[in-house]
Amino acid sequence: MEPRARKLKILASIIESYVLTGEPIASKALAEAMQNSVSSATIRNDMAELVASGYLEQPHTSSGRIPSQRGYRLYVDHLMMGNHELPLELQGEIDKRLAAFSYDPNKFLEVTASLIAEQTGLLAVVTNPADQHPKVTNAELMLIGVHSVMLLIMISPATLKTRICRLKPELTPEIVEKLRRRLRERLMDVPTESINEQFYAESAVIYGDLWDMLEPLFAAARECIEESGEMQVIMEGQSSMLARGVFAEWQLAGIMDFMEKRGAIADLLGEGNGFANSGRTCILIGNESHRPELEGTAMITERYYGGGQTAGWIGVVGPTRMNYAKLIPYIDYFAGAVGNMLREVYN
């Protein structure tokens, strides 16, 4: 075997063994794993060169070797092999469980995160879909009391916001239907960026005496629209990772604190890291994220597309010692399934 090919095979074998056991790999154990096709002495020499080149590390003088961040990167980019699709039976089970909540966008993303955490055993991270040019796609009113209605606003691609509004006059189904029609004729298909102070003032003029009742509804709708522009980050799997000792409590607290910073997540998934225009699974290992809170972690993410220019993110965060070949098909499938369901339901 050519020396370079042999070293790459040794590196891949060390990484795959370390992912399974979490223990440093010695040359004798590696020779046995490779069915003695390469001698222990040759393996020791190659391992020493891989350490010198920065692909392996030696935690202690007498111990075996473990992969470095550079070694993981070479493995993920060039050496990793594995199944690229989930079993059909598992695909069907995922689709079935997601479909049960596809008409409730908020719950749908929570269930997605929960399923990813359940299937991977890692911290699942899901962001809400964002539209480059969002607009109001639906507006509804429900009578819930003598002076109260529930306002439901749907903003593209799949954001549902609700508010309870209290109105001064006594309400009847006929009055609520009249308000609903006025609300819909003014808001439906309007770009959210156009719903500003000028839009608000023009609405007051248009509706005259009816504005006293409509004003609280328009104010609530505007609140909903402003909120919809914020990135939402949904996380699941924290307790499982803590219970299994994947991270120390302080490490997990730092990771979660970072993930809850919407601006930081937006920057991390932005163009600076090559994510924004990528149509494939993206992997950040260790300090490639340039975030101290994420040092010692790896992040696998993929963008999902809800139609047109709408997109959100799905991913997992775990230790650098994760089974990349096994995890990537999960992220890839969930990204496709979520995007497909959003397009079917909301387009």
Summarize the structure.
This protein has 347 residues and is an alpha+beta fold. The protein has three domains: 3-79, Winged helix-like DNA-binding domain superfamily/Winged helix DNA-binding domain (Arc Repressor Mutant, subunit A), CATH 1.10.10; 88-130 and 231-346, Beta-Lactamase (2-Layer Sandwich); 136-228, 2-Layer Sandwich (Enolase-like, domain 1), CATH 3.30.390.
Give an overview of the whole structure.
The chain is elongated, with a radius of gyration of 26 Å. The protein has three domains: 3-79, Orthogonal Bundle (Arc Repressor Mutant, subunit A), CATH 1.10.10; 88-130 and 231-346, GAF domain (Beta-Lactamase); 136-228, Enolase-like, domain 1. The N and C termini lie far apart (55 Å). The chain is built from 13 helices and ten strands. The model has no long low-confidence stretch (mean pLDDT 87). The strands form three sheets. Strands 7-3-10-9-8 form a five-stranded antiparallel β-sheet. The chain is an alpha+beta fold and 347 residues long.
Provide tags for this entry.
347 residues; alpha+beta; Arc Repressor Mutant, subunit A; Beta-Lactamase; Enolase-like, domain 1; 3 domains; 5-stranded antiparallel beta sheet; 3-stranded antiparallel beta sheet; 13 helices
Low-confidence stretches: none
Order of helices and strands: HHHEEHHHEEEEHHHEHHHEEEH
The domain count comes to 3
Supply the CATH class of the largest domain: Alpha Beta
Radius of gyration: 26 Å
Could you name the CATH topology of the largest domain? Beta-Lactamase
| SS strand fraction | 15-25%
Report how far the terminal alpha carbons are from each other. 55 Å
The CATH level-2 architecture of the largest domain is identified as: 2-Layer Sandwich
Number of extended strands: 10
Q: Provide the spatial order of strands within the biggest beta sheet.
A: 7-3-10-9-8
**What is the CATH superfamily of the largest domain?**
GAF domain
Report the mean per-residue pLDDT as an integer. Answer: 87
Please outline the major beta sheet: 5 strands, antiparallel
What global shape is seen?
Answer: elongated
Number of helices: 13
Structural class: alpha+beta
| Percentage of residues assigned to helices | 40-55%
